[in-house]
Amino acid sequence: MRRKWRAMRKSCRRVSSAIKTIFGMPDYDRYLQHWLATHAAPGIFPMTEREYYLYALTERYEKGGVTRCC
After folding, report:
1. What is the Cα–Cα distance from 45 to 69, expressed in whole angstroms?
2. Full-prediction pTM beyond 0.90?
3. d(CA 23, CA 8)
4. CA dihedral 32, 40, 49, 30 (to 10 degrees)
5. What is the DSSP track for 13-51?
6. Which among 21, 41, 43 is positioned nearest to 31, based on CA atoms?
7. Residue 65 and residue 59 in contact, taking contact as beta carbons nearer than 8 Å
8. What is the pLDDT of residues 34-44, one digit of tens each?
């Protein structure tokens, strides 16, 4: 039974990640996986979820990532 729940949760996370990617929304779980795989070091911590979303919004809207008329 636990295996089925784990598989279902994993599938839901994948679908959620795909939807976020399609709509251009930041994906904190994907960021954490990347950070842990490439940037993790003792005494250094990843951004909090709130910091990550603020960073992603700034990058998208204030750095010129979105080009549209309105």
Report:
1. 38
2. no
3. 23
4. -10
5. HHHHHHHHHHHT---HHHHHHHHHHHT-BTTB-PPPHHH
6. 21
7. yes
8. 999 999 999 99
Q: At what angle do helices 2-23 and 28-38 cross, to 10 degrees?
A: 100
| Residue 45 backbone phi and psi in degrees, to 5 | -120, 150
Helix 49-57 to helix 28-38 angle (10° resolution) is 100
Cα–Cα nearest to 28, from 17, 18, 19: 17
User: CA 34 from chain center: how many Å?
Assistant: 9
Contacts of 46-55 with CB under 8 Å at 24 or more apart are: 52/26, 52/28, 53/26, 53/28
Q: Quick check: 45 and 15 in contact, CB under 8 A?
A: no
Q: Provide the 8-state DSSP code for 57.
A: H
What's the confidence (pLDDT) of residue 45? Answer: 94
